[in-house]
Amino acid sequence: MTSFKDNMNRRRFMQVAAGSAAVMALPQIPLNAAKKATPERPNILWISTEDISPDLGCYGDSYAVTPNIDELAARGVRYTNVYSHAGVCAPTRSGIITGMYPTTIGTHHMRCQGVPPEYVKCFSEYLRAAGYYCTNNVKTDYQFDPPPSAWDECSRKAHWRNRGKDQPFFAIFNFTVSHESQIRNRTDAMLKRLDALTPHERHDPDKAVLPPYYPDTSKVRQDWAQYYDIITLTDKLVADVLKQIEDDGLADDTIVWFWGDHGRGLPRAKRWIYDSGLRVPLIIHVPSKWRKLAMPDNPDSVKPGAVNDDLIAFIDFAPTMLSLAGIKIPDHIQGKAFLGSQKGEPREYIFAARDRMDEAYDLIRAVRDKRYKYIRNYMWYLTRSQDINYMNEMPTMQEMRRLNAEDKLEGPQKQYFEETKPIEELYDTATDPHEVNNLAGDPKYKDVLRRMRVIHAKWVRETGDIGLIPEPEFDEMKRPGGKYEKTTEPVFWAPKWQPGEATRRVTIYCPTPGSSIVYRISGYGQNDSAWRLYTKSVWLTQGKVLHAKACRIGFKDSGQVSFRFDDKVSGPKPPETPTMDKQHWLHKLDKTDLLKRLREIKELDGSGENGPYLKALKGKYASVRYWAVIGLHYRSNKAEAEQAKAACKKALDNPAAVVRIAAAHALCDWGSEDKALPVLAEALNDKTDKAGLYAIIALNKIGEKARPLLEQIKAAQKDSDNYVQRVAQTTMELLGDA
User: Fold this and answer.
1) Nearest 5 degrees, angle CA 13-CA 19-CA 20?
2) Which residues are tagged catalytic?
3) Cβ neighbours of residue 567 closer than 8 Å, sequence gap 6 or more
């Protein structure tokens, strides 16, 4: 099958223009993008909020008190079918800023510090190259450190007001008051903020309408009411930033977006890829002068009070921004524009993924059309109710666990605590918006199930989903030995100059594939410290000094280098632009059939046959061998138990840590702790990143059988990996020795 990478247009990486570094710095941008004369371009303001579903008055929620957001919706377009590709912030924001699925570029695990391929850029960099002043205030959380090329300003003081005269801007304000942590915040400071709300603005817990998967208790109702209270606080912040736009006389020139980064910050919503975790509000106000730009064929579709039910995915945000700004969308971007001159056809499907959430591993994929949601649980043998320490701080979660322990949950409330998950789930969201009635086994929906299953498999294949590679294996692929690569320091090229000349043209070059360059010139005064994005040769005058550094996403930035006017740097021609990074994990992966083999072995889920797993255990890929052990561990064919046990004992000597850990876990479950526990003890100190997390999770899951390693588990509470610490602490509590 043709992979996503095979479809990439690499010619952009080979283009070079003599005397210009536009291609050297940003290969995907046309050579004339930075100096192309554009009559006028819109300003764009993003108002981003944390952890909210469309629980707003303008979306028909009578419990909500959101007058300012409702008024924005009355002046703009309210989008009703907008979805994140993940139920948590970091993978979500990684996809938004790059326009690519985290499962393609390796930023899918929570807080994983990814190393995307060399062609991946923050879309704001394209805007900067085209002349926009780009600011972010202040959250990033991209799964990589934001490169200095991404923003003119990225701080709590970042504001459009610092831009140059008549310069168009793209500004983001990220409001965090609606974050999950604030729902359970009962501190004096928070209570004071809530007390400042009027009686009309406070939400009565007794009037809350709870989803059917929550128990109806006073603590749950209190969380639900405070969730709505903090949305009202957010509404006031939205009013404030909109007033600033008005006060600056920019309202008629600024397209405003309001959106939430994923679903509400409550259990069975945030972190999950049910609609409660994916569906978000999106409101876009397009001033009248820009409606033809936004929707060339139908400007009235973005007039005040419009409602749009097209399916929109978060990875569509980046290309839509470029489309509105008149910048050609790079070929590698996986999203599609839904506004502007490059608007694509409406989507038929959105896709989503759940991978490691903090210290808890899972692997779930979803595809949704306007009505049906298909979910594939690749770790079906795990319960939904895995411990995540941070999530367990929520009173609602504590209530759910308490009532489950007391066997007092009813109906859909029990689903979260089922010992395993179905391999497939199918929901009719029109009749079952809370997704509690799984139709995957209903013969009446077999055609829908088959269609969605095929679409899911096609997406996994065509986007090069790497989720089946165990994280310890992937970490070693992306960053061998755990070592961060550093972007090479840039170098300067300049034609010869004659004594007496007052100016000199300087080209800056970095040999690291995919690198971007920022620069500044000292000697001009107060703006000397601001880094500018390098897109073309710089003219340097007598007495000034040119400073530059290079960056690449996932790499450490280079050191700063300087060039003085009379430095003797010249050559017959500028250096050639580097092409692709052939040593990058994705380019290496493309030369193998690993992903194909992984997909094949996971097609065996539920089959109960030992034979294919035993064969796979002899394969060359550690990742495939890992899933072979998992298949043997959770097989349904009890008649071949001894055969599986013998294979796992042999796997204790496998060269790959993940295979040894999986085999040891299986053997502990089967009563062979004597041989398995030493393997898990050794794995706690494995040098491979995240192998220790795999090991402590296995010890947690075997429960009382882990007691002989109590001292090692206790020591793991001080591990350098915070997630290992958390699981160790939970395990100590489980064993009654915390």
Assistant:
1) 50
2) 89
3) 492, 494
